[in-house]
Structure to design on (489 residues):
């Protein structure tokens, strides 16, 4: 029975458990590197070498959060896109395995969404004065949180597996259609506190401007890569658990 | 020539079946007045709670605009799901699947919900004008456009969610939970535009909100039309 499930590997993110070892190792190494370097490298007013960060006015030591907060937010969006992608795949082919992938990715998306909200709220408390300010980007992460919550509420309210898969796929696509409004329209219409909001002179995320030094940028992209690998590894692990659960359920129904 | 005539005839047939579904829903609604009564009582209840809470205070135009759409949102959540839930409850969903193409069903239900939402907004406007002295519409053009676009958007999102929850358990609680994340964009724009209408601003000042509303209506309606088949067919 276990052999049959192992044979079913195919498609995106699904390498054999052998190469998944490297993904696991890579994510651990990259995230530990970012954790140590991001916290240990000292801030100086005029950095000279690779082992010194510039002192960004207004952010100071709090700038270090960018190596953790932005990658979690990025992974949230990645997980949402993967979940919607497999939702569409399910609607096209009616293969229940695509639904397992979709729900696995949505679960991880919810986890990273909570992490991004918490790291963001902490940063907001010490930089802007309160945990929550209804800044456009805070609003959009809140909406993503609500969408994930609604998605799982819907799934628990439908008994038939096929119906549950189809309905939740449709819901995640419809909800996904409104997300561009939050990412592209709202932040530019309403004035906000995040970089890149309406009326901001830099008018672009922090890492595109001149404020971030080259070594910060390298560390930032290392963080993105590390968190993405962590997502791929967790996705693979949780998908295998979901498949085992599903097959056990089928067996129980057969008995 | 023959082809053109055929496509024309098919078009007429689609319109006819859409119209037939609207008429059927209107007749069954007028027979029981279930949705209309629920909506009316909901509006009266919420507005009187707001009036008790205010105790004679005069809220600002932003607060009034916000409360206007709060009442519209929750009343819509209590009435608009009927379109599909009633078909499932009466066991007529299968018959409807047999006699009509699913796109006609979708547009029929959508237009019925648009009519229901427009009459709901009309009713709430009258109740608000009577109950709040501060609720005077200074720019009727902004208000009318907001109300029409807002009703279209609200009805289009509410219709596809109604189709989804009709197939699920615990429908009553699920409906606002699923609708709210999708409606946030719409609610933010209509609240903005309504506040502008109460403050008597120029039509161009609200143009940004209208652009957001128009693209929202188009995106949601097109998406629902493409996906409706997967929800509706068993």
């Amino acid at each position: 029975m276990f052999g049959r499930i192992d044979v079913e590997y195919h498609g995106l993110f699904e390498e054999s458990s052998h190469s998944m070892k490297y993904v696991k190792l890579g994510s651990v190494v990259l995230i530990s590197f970012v954790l140590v370097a991001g916290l240990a490298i000292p801030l100086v007013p005029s950095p000279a070498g690779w082992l010194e960060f510039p002192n960004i006015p207004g952010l100071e030591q709090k700038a270090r959060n960018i190596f953790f907060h932005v990658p979690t937010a990025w992974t949230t969006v990645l997980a949402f896109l993967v979940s919607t992608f497999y939702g569409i795949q399910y609607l096209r082919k009616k293969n229940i395995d695509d639904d397992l992938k979709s729900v696995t990715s949505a679960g991880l998306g919810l986890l990273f969404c909570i992490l991004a909200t918490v790291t963001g709220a902490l940063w907001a408390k010490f930089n802007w004065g309160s945990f929550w300010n209804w800044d456009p980007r805070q609003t959009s992460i809140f909406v993503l949180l609500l969408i994930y919550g609604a998605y799982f509420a819907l799934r628990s309210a439908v008994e038939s597996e096929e119906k549950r898969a189809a309905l939740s796929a449709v819901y995640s696509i419809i909800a996904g259609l409104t997300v561009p409004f939050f990412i592209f329209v709202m932040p530019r219409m309403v004035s906000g506190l995040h970089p890149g909001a309406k009326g901001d002179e830099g008018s672009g995320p922090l890492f595109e401007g001149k404020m971030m030094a080259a070594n910060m940028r390298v560390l930032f992209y290392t963080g993105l890569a590390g968190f993405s690998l962590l997502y791929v590894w967790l996705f693979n692990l949780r998908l295998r658990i979901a498949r085992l659960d599903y097959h056990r359920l089928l067996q129980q129904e057969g008995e | 020539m023959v082809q053109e005539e055929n496509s024309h005839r098919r078009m007429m047939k689609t319109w006819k079946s859409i119209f037939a579904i609207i008429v059927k829903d209107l007749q069954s609604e007028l027979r029981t007045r279930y949705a209309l009564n629920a909506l009316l009582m909901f509006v009266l209840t919420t507005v009187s709670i707001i009036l008790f809470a205010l105790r004679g205070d005069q809220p600002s135009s932003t607060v009034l605009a916000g409360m206007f759409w709060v009442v519209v949102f929750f009343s819509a959540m209590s009435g608009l799901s009927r379109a599909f839930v009633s078909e499932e409850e009466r066991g007529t969903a299968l018959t409807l699947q047999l006699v009509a193409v699913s796109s006609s069903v979708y547009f029929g239900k959508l237009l019925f919900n648009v009519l229901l939402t427009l009459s709901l907004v009309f009713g709430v406007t009258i109740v608000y004008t009577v109950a709040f002295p501060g609720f005077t519409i200074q720019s009727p053009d902004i208000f009318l456009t907001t109300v029409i676009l807002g009703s279209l958007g609200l009805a289009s999102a509410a219709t596809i969610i109604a189709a989804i929850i009709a197939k699920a358990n615990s429908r009553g609680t699920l409906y606002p939970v699923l609708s709210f994340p999708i409606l946030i964009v719409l609610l933010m724009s209509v609240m903005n535009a309504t506040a502008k209408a109460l403050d008597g601003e120029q039509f161009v000042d609200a143009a940004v909100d209208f652009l957001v509303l128009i693209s929202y209506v188009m995106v949601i309606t097109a998406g629902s039309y493409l996906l409706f088949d997967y929800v509706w067919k068993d």
In short: The first strand of chain A starts at residue 43 and ends at 44. Chain A touches chain B at residues 91, 139, 143, 146-147, 149-150, 153-154, 157-159, 163, 166-167, 169-171, 173-175, 177-178, 181-182, 185-186, 189 (CB under 8 Å).
